[in-house]
Amino acid sequence: MKCEDVRPLLGAHADHELDLIREVELEAHLQTCSDCAQRAQALAACRQALRDSLPRFAAPAPLRQKILSSVRADVRPVAPFASGKRPSWSWGNLGGIAASLAAALILGYGWGNRHARTDSLWNEAIADHVRSLQAGHLMDVVSTDQHTVKPWFIGKLDFSPPVADLADVGFPLAGGRLERLDGQTAAALVFHRRLHSINLFIWPAAQSPVPPAHAGIDGYHGETWSEGGLNFLAVSEIPAPELDQFIRDYRSRTK
Amino acid sequence: MEPMEAFVPAEPRTFEQLMLPHLDAAYNLARWLLRDPHDAEDAVQDACLRAHRAFDRFRGSDGRAWLLAIVRNTCFSVLRKKRREPGEVVFEDDLHGSTEDPAEANALAWREIKGDLLRQALERIPAEYREVIVLHEIEGMAYREIASVADIPIGTVMSRLSRGRRKLQTELLTLTGKASP
Fold it and tell me: Tell me, what CATH number does B106's domain have?
């Protein structure tokens, strides 16, 4: 190796990034060339000075806290739908609540009593929904007739869940079952949408009505609302606009 | 229908577990690039939120490089907004033929340089060069890792480090009142 070949490699040599073959050749050259050796030493000294004197700034504790809160309150966007169109999110006025619900679900965090109920609510609802999709677990009463489904709940629940068949608008009633949700026994109504299912959970609001909120998690969408002393939570893997449509139809039919 | 595995993560590797250990690295880079503690805080917070939203696209094993890439992109867009002169950024990477590392060329006794002076000098060189020096010397990143953070070829990492050291030397000589070599 000649000086002109060595010079451009001195930086990589100082950085320990030279491949073995060239490193060996370069070392051999440095043994015989004091000029290049001196340059190599200066570079090493430069690196040493930088490593010794440059401070590594640590993130201030309040920043860490701020980031934790903002990340926990943030909602991870769901994957785009097949159409390529993203759902129109309506986190809106209660975005913070919905966001924390979704974040809790994603991150598996429970932080504080205020959130604890709603965290577990979403977790339970989605777990129930997923379980209900497994064969044989969907319904305790299989019927497309609201007049069969509704009476089935009598005696099993201390409230009467509003039941409507929405077959004419593309959401045929498929049946119902009982679930535990929010620490209570809830009615779960199952509706179909093409090959998909919607689980609608209904339970007494009592002193703790759920706030209206949307959530989109891993391709599942959920919506909560409270009406007439009952809490409602709809969850499905169908696109959010279709779920919104379902909820509008259901609410108008059961008024 | 979505696969049900979506609800049964094999290993719960959350954003907080994978990214927050690198918060110091993130803040350090932002602090050096923006040269202002408040701007750095804002940029890191912004970057973390972006990282969080893109977290489902994180596939790699190197959380630090992934987060730092987002942090540096955030910082550079802040810098671009702040720059008065449009198009001021001239990357010299490909403009000069020489890749000779001139920091060795010397006149400068590195061992006697005061830390504070070195810090000032580093703050004075262009951000693109400051970046590679910070990642290399403070974060201890290899060329390959720096290349992935800054999204540049490894050869460019090498030449930016060399030029960065040269610029550093020039600034040091200016700061100490000696003429540029």
Answer: 1.10.10.10
